User: Which sequence fits this backbone?
């Protein structure tokens, strides 16, 4: 199913790439969703303090302790954002889904 979905999405007009991080699992618990919300807030707060990252350039989404970083950034900005996220309390994994300017 996971691979079939990736192939299907690639057939959509203007889709250039698919970062297939899909996990087939049951519904997340309330505690897990709440924890993810707090992690997202902590990562966003730390990114706002990081002068190497334009906070308007990076979207942060957390699911089950995995932080997804998305946006259009320079490679240096993306690496700085990933480093900041990976050293944030509660983060288990960071997935970069960036489009790079350089």
Assistant:
């Amino acid at each position: 199913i996971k691979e079939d979905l990736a192939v299907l999405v690639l057939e959509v007009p203007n889709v250039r790439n698919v970062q297939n991080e899909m996990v087939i699992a049951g519904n997340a618990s309330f505690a897990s969703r709440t924890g993810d919300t707090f992690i997202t807030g902590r990562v966003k707060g730390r990114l706002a303090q990081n002068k190497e990252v334009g906070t308007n350039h990076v979207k942060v989404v957390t699911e089950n302790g995995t932080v997804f970083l998305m946006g259009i950034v320079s490679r240096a900005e993306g690496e700085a954002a990933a480093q900041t996220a990976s050293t944030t309390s509660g983060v288990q994994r960071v997935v970069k889904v960036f489009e790079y300017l350089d």
Remarks:
- Strands lie at 59-63, 66-73, 93-100.
